[in-house]
Design goal:
Length: about 350
Amino acid sequence: MPPPQPSWGPPPPGGYAPYPVLPPRRRSSSGPILALVLGGVVVLGLGAVGVFAATLNNKVKDTGYSNYTTYSPTFSYTGNATTTTTTTTTSTASTRTSSTRTSTAQPTPVGPKAVYKLADHPIFATGIGANDFDACPLPKMEYTPAGEQRFLTAALPCIEKAWQPALKAANLPYQPVELQVFTGTTQTPCGSRKADSTAMFCRGVIYWPGNFYASEQNGLRHPGVYLGQLGHEYGHHLQWLTGMMRAADQAQYDVGGFDTQKGLELNRRLELQATCLGGMTLAPFSHKNVVPMDVVNTGLRDASQRGDYNRTPDHGSAPNNERWVMHGHKQNNIKACNTWAASPADVS
């Protein structure tokens, strides 16, 4: 059965913020640009995933977004995200003739770089997942900005350890995500952000509002909520590193903007993929008793109940959020999170 709808009103905006450097959006008649949003919290069951998983595994047909493959933005990753090695040989003179022989330069090996594709992104062919790790010592959760920062800062190295080998295996760039826990209002490259809204990812940084998740209306104070939300935002970091986020931004521009029918569908595919990747991120935590299963299950339940409800359809319905997070968690295979190849009904 699909999970019942929550009884409270729409949650505040949040989620992922688009790149601010795209050319001006084409005008559309569907109204002003709407904020990206992330849903609320309900603790419910985790059913309604079997049929979805079976049908999704058979969906290999692209739904029209793989042609966005030629866009090459001029940004570059910082730190050790990209490496290029050049090998050359010097000229040598022959002792038997008066001529000089010069060797040809060796081809430059291709270093890791983002690939700006969607449904046909090469990462889906790798079959990689989030790697297991043996331990992840997390401090006791304290529901203060400082306590939340300690907990999230301790969890991130484990998440990085799970995903770094996968990106390396796919020859994609890697750099650790940054975390900023803030109160009040903070300025980001994607605009200002208030602490009364959900966490947001923007250009390699997760902006986390201190005290927000501890005081959500009808919310649940539990470390699993924080771990689940952190997995979703890290899913956006993976989209950024791989190039899929940039390709999705360009695709939205090409169809007339975020607030068009096709633009909103693209955004749902992006957000539901981050939800699926968040489910994959929790997979290593559920193995080898790394953390209590109650923490993992609460994170999955929380992610399952965030969605559009009765507001702007840009994050997907709560039942589809449930299906994607559980599909990613159970499969722990990147191809399970190819929302770009899913049917419109699966990303509604």
